[in-house]
């Protein structure tokens, strides 16, 4: 009955949902961005599922690293 069972699809789906939800929550909690920027980032994350969320995460990490090193 379940001869061709692959656990790859559920893992990809759960990863996608977790990454997308994290990115959207992070975008809307971000205090330095105005509403227009948040809307644009939301569209990017939804339109380009993995790429948009990963780009947001990288830019968030770079920005936080810059703030922590420049304030010393």
From TrEMBL:
Supply the source organism for this entry: Cellulomonas flavigena (strain ATCC 482 / DSM 20109 / BCRC 11376 / JCM 18109 / NBRC 3775 / NCIMB 8073 / NRS 134)
Q: Can you list the GO cellular component terms from the UniProt entry?
A: plasma membrane
Localization annotation: Cell membrane
- Know the name of this protein? Cardiolipin synthase N-terminal domain-containing protein
Q: Which Pfam families match?
A: PLDc_N
Question: Where does the source fall among the domains of life?
Answer: Bacteria
Give every Cardiolipin synthase N-terminal domain span: 18-58
Annotated membrane topology is: Multi-pass membrane protein
Residue intervals passing through the bilayer: 7-28, 40-62
User: What are the record keywords, sorted?
Assistant: Cell membrane, Membrane, Transmembrane, Transmembrane helix
Enumerate the InterPro entries for this protein: CLS_N
């Amino acid at each position: 009955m379940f001869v061709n069972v692959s656990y790859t699809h559920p893992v990809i789906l759960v990863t996608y949902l977790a990454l997308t939800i994290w990115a959207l929550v992070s975008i809307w909690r971000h205090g330095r961005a105005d509403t227009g920027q948040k809307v644009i980032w939301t569209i990017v994350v939804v339109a380009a599922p993995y790429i948009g969320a990963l780009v947001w995460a990288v830019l968030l990490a770079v920005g936080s690293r810059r703030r922590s090193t420049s304030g010393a």
